[in-house]
UniProtKB/TrEMBL annotation:
It holds the Pfam family LytR_cpsA_psr. Belongs to the LytR/CpsA/Psr (LCP) family. This is LytR family transcriptional regulator. The keyword Transmembrane applies.
Length: 335
């Protein structure tokens, strides 16, 4: 072998070593980034964890729910966080029942002015429960109102909601008709036109909160809130946002409170990885507007309420469908 060939072989070996070293460095950087992202997500999500005074198990359950094997429920509370006293009221209340085995979800919006019995406080609007006893009393009130166990909860304030919507790049909604709503920031008018619109955080909050201009009142408002939740989930799971999950998780950790553990969330997500949010079954409660002592309340229709309660119970496997029908018959007989 002559000198030229020897030099060429040495040059090839040096080049190969550099390529191997570069590959190792790139793989190491990717591993470090992945590790940092996982740590950031876990740390941020852990910051939002807050257990209930009762512990994990609802008093309406005999044992703690197995989250990947049994249907469970979650109460989603949107909180007015502009109160000068530091304790706002629930501006929106939604109950989700989730079946991880059959991959089905039901979503119920409860009108904020619904007349209910707040445990230990007496009759009042359901959104006053949070001001009187925060998340624990709100959960107890919803459990009594719907007669179902509430296994998990999530609270988010106006500020946090807007930050998260902005972080995921806004959401797309289908505006049902032209209207405007005042901004919660400077009270300026935000205009919405019928058809598809892309909304930032401030606009999405105004869209979800408007009630007075909606001919359907709370029912139209509740449907828009459900639409916003669905749109946010779709956007959150988009490939673009999965690449910046650490930043999104930080915003969630700073603004959301929940008793849903990171490990549970990941386990449930794996069950619903091919889930289409358009298949979420949306429920509502009908009723009438009433006034007692000059104060406005929404009074749920007893027959409709019983049907909704039975649907949620059946989805949670809390009762059989035969019991559901008998309950409705009993209410009809009373009326």
């Amino acid at each position: 072998m002559d000198r030229i060939q020897l030099k060429q072989q040495r040059k090839k070996k040096r080049l190969l070593k550099r390529l191997v070293l570069t590959s190792i460095m790139i793989m190491g950087a990717i591993a470090l980034y992945f590790g940092y992202t996982v740590f950031s997500v876990y740390n941020a999500a852990s910051n939002s964890y807050s257990e209930l005074e009762r512990g994990m198990k609802s008093e309406l359950r005999t044992e703690e729910v197995k989250i990947t094997k049994e249907p469970f429920s979650m109460l989603i509370m949107g909180i007015e966080d502009y109160s000068s006293e530091g304790v706002g009221r629930t501006d929106s209340l939604m109950v989700a029942t989730i079946d991880p085995v059959n991959k089905s979800v039901k979503l119920l919006s409860i009108p904020r002015d619904t007349l209910v019995d707040i445990p230990g406080e007496g009759e009042d609007k359901i959104n006053h429960a949070y001001a009187k006893g925060k998340k624990d009393l709100t959960i107890a009130t919803v459990e009594e109102f719907l007669d179902i166990p509430i296994d998990y909860y999530t609270t988010i304030g106006f500020k946090g909601f807007k930050e998260i919507i902005n972080e995921i790049g806004g959401i797309t909604v289908d505006v049902p008709f032209d209207f405007y709503e005042n901004s919660d920031v400077d009270n300026s008018k935000i205009y919405f036109t019928e058809g598809e619109m892309n909304l930032n955080g401030e606009e999405a909050l105004a869209y979800a909160r408007m009630r007075k201009q909606d001919p359907r009142g709370d029912f139209g408002r509740n449907e828009r809130q459900q639409e916003v939740i669905q749109a946010a989930i779709d956007k959150l799971l988009s490939p673009t946002n999965l690449l910046k999950i650490d930043s999104i998780a930080q915003h969630i950790g700073d603004n959301v409170e929940t008793n849903f553990k990171v490990s549970d969330a990941l386990a449930v997500q794996s069950k619903f990885k091919d889930f289409n949010t358009s298949s979420i079954e949306k429920l509502s409660i009908t009723g009438t507007d009433v006034r007692y002592s000059g104060i406005y309340y929404f009074q749920a229709d007893p027959v409709e309420l019983t049907e909704v309660k039975s649907a949620l119970k059946a989805h949670l496997n809390h009762i059989s469908s035969t019991v559901k029908n008998s309950e409705i018959d009993e209410v009809n007989e009373e009326l």
